[in-house]
Design goal:
Elements lengths: L18 E2 L5 E2 L23 H9 L4 H11 L1 E3 L1 H4 L13 E8 L17 E9 L6 E6 L4 E3 L5 E3 L2 H19 L5 E5 L1 H10 L3 E5 L3 E3 L2 E3 L2 E5 L1 H9 L8 H19 L2 H4 L2 H11 L3 E4 L4 H10 L8 E5 L2 E6 L5 E5 L1 H13 L2 H7 L6
Parallel strand pairs: 3-14, 4-9, 6-15
Antiparallel strand pairs: 1-2, 4-5, 5-6, 7-8, 9-14, 10-13, 11-12, 16-17
Length: 362
Amino acid sequence: MSHTPEYQAPSGGVSAATAYDPEGNPVEPSHRDRRPRKKRTGRKILVTLLVLVLLAVAAVAGYVFYLGKLFDDNSNQLGQDDLYSGEQPVAEAGDPINILLLGSDARDEDVDYAGGARGFRSDTIMVMHLDGDRKGAQIMSIPRDMWVPVEGHGNAKINAAMSYGGLPLANQTISEFIDAPIHHVAIIDFEGFKALTDSVGGVTVDSEQAFEIDGHSFTQGENELDGEQALAFVRERKGFADGDLQRARNQQAYLKALTSKIISADTLSNPNKVTGMVRDFAPYMTVDDKLTASKIASIGYEMREVRPGEVTFFSAPISGAGRSADGQAILNVDEAGRDEIRKAFNDDTVGDYAENASPPHL
């Protein structure tokens, strides 16, 4: 399909819970840990890899109880009715697991994730697929302007589903796009994003191109990023020729770097660093209430042999940019590619698809 030049990328603390050492003895929290618990908000939420927590918790088995308590006490949980229009799917032993990773550009301090408030749109969308044999994981980025059917509203941008019907409709829309169940949901806001980056001592990201945003400059090639810099790196889109598609590639580059840093020997062999990572990260996480620390540890143990190179990234297939009948700038779905994606999710061959997928460009 020819590409129209009209497309422009649109604008877009931990509570003082009791902690335990590896022997199970209570530990008095330090003054630094006594931050007021952060209220769950919808402000500029950005997504990160849940697999980071899965693998980190599993790799330090002696601390699972302690870390699990930190995670359960300080993360936010949403029930089935907040997330699904019907029953929450359950993955049986040996089944693949699909986890929806969402962000939002909403600015309302009291967003109801289950509601359908106008203006509340998912800012970043990814689906993480964990292979049935737990030997690999794949992360698919979905451009927020992708034009898809949204039940009850005809065709619309995929991120509009959140505005129309909250998380249940967003969940349903994405599940229908991949023609596979979404078993779990995870959301993180920007404060957690920065805290996680700083907890591991920053990351080294390989940027495809040089650019500047909000006083931060990035060079083509390797960049050493702290939390503030990493946030700027993954948020920029307006300065790129293909907008959100380049932003997705930057997010993937960042997540590859963060995954490598977290499951490196320097991180996992340092109990204080792992503890700080979970402590700093958990208060800014919102997950379904079935994704408890024990569930995370169980999945993480099953995936204990997965290394950074076995976590692959790809993007939903796009055939080009265009305009909707009412004049919106949209990204059209490559229908043949969509059919291949659906087959891959159903056959548990997403890894094969991801290895052969080419990043979409405009």
